[in-house]
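quick one, 211 residues, struct below
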Amino acid sequence: MQDASILFDYFPELTEKQRDQFKQLGLLYKDWNEKINVISRKDIDNLYINHILHSLAIAKVIQFKPQASVLDVGTGGGFPGLPLAILFPKTEFHLVDSIGKKIHVVNEIAQSIGLENMNADHIRAEQLKHKYDFVVSRAVTRMKEFYGWVQHKIKSESQHTLDNGILYLKGGDLDEEMNELKKRYSLYDLTEYFKEDFFVTKKIVYLPIYN
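---
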């Protein structure tokens, strides 16, 4: 199994507390995954690159500010929200998923590592009443459908270098999918930040939303 050192090469400014929290994730996810399958069994050995580092790619595009709020929709096993919550300890993260047993695992892992700026709920995004600075996700559905779920969950006033909106981790050829939406967007190629083969087809889609 990979270890957390791969993260430290790309994020050398991590505090000792953050390094310790990331180190703990390996065993915690392995143990929980044997009870409740939140990550593909064949993929658990690739946890640090395929899931944690992939999640942290968002931090190469934006630095979330203290007191900002970020919603992770369809978080599954806690990605990208949980690693981002470790990286940005003064930013508030709300992780949601429609599968309750996955949310249970996410909350247990967060409690085990002492993560206090994150909460996870068993709820669909459409049912949420709050608004957030950004919505993040890892390819839970096509962007047109995802946009429909979250377009009214974004605060109107921006405080970051990027306007408020969606940051979506996605792979492959996205032209057709994004053309369905007919909205202005930007793509960030993850090979610009990471050298591992896993990232060759991976991108972040940034879609500003003006409410």
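The mean pLDDT is 95.
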